[in-house]
Amino acid sequence: MYIELLILIQIEESPKHGYEIKKEIQKDLGYLTDVNNNMLYPALRKFTEEGLVTKRMNEHSGGPTQYIYEITENGRRRITELVNVFTERDAKHQSEFLIRVSLFRYISPDNRLRILTMRMKDLEQLLSDLEERLEPHNIDCYREEVLRLSIFKLKAEQDWIHKLMEKVVREAE
Description:
- There is one protein chain.
- By secondary structure, the protein is mainly α.
- 69% of the residues lie in helices and 7% in strands.
- It has eight helices and three strands; from the N terminus they run H-E-H-H-E-E-H-H-H-H-H.
- It has a three-stranded antiparallel sheet.
- Helix 1 packs across helix 2, helix 1 (2-13) crosses helix 4 (73-84) and helix 7 runs antiparallel to helix 8.
- The protein is elongated.
């Protein structure tokens, strides 16, 4: 779902052709996600059919035909809808969560806190499960090291989320 959101947001920022959209997403969030042509162009076709974007031919000489996509008011409304939908299932996926945080400028403070709280709840459960696996001490030392690293990362993410929550509260005041 977040791929569609990222595509629409790129078009909202400024009219772009498909390759520019892909390039900008990769530049901003390439470490979290990959946008390939099999995702991008069907989404653009769907957005055009639904009236979320308009497309016009780029009037340049030489090269293949290129279309420039521009957001419509319906597209802006869809961004608002998509960016605010965040479920418990989404909270379990780190990339879904991190992409949503990167889009917090589109989300109300209350909804930001809801998203952060949902992710925190999921992290608490994951942390509990991993710590439980360490208890019996009947695992080999390398698997134990991997579990310890995972626990360390989860605790670091929890600390980061606490700081984000504080920031959201301060900004809302």
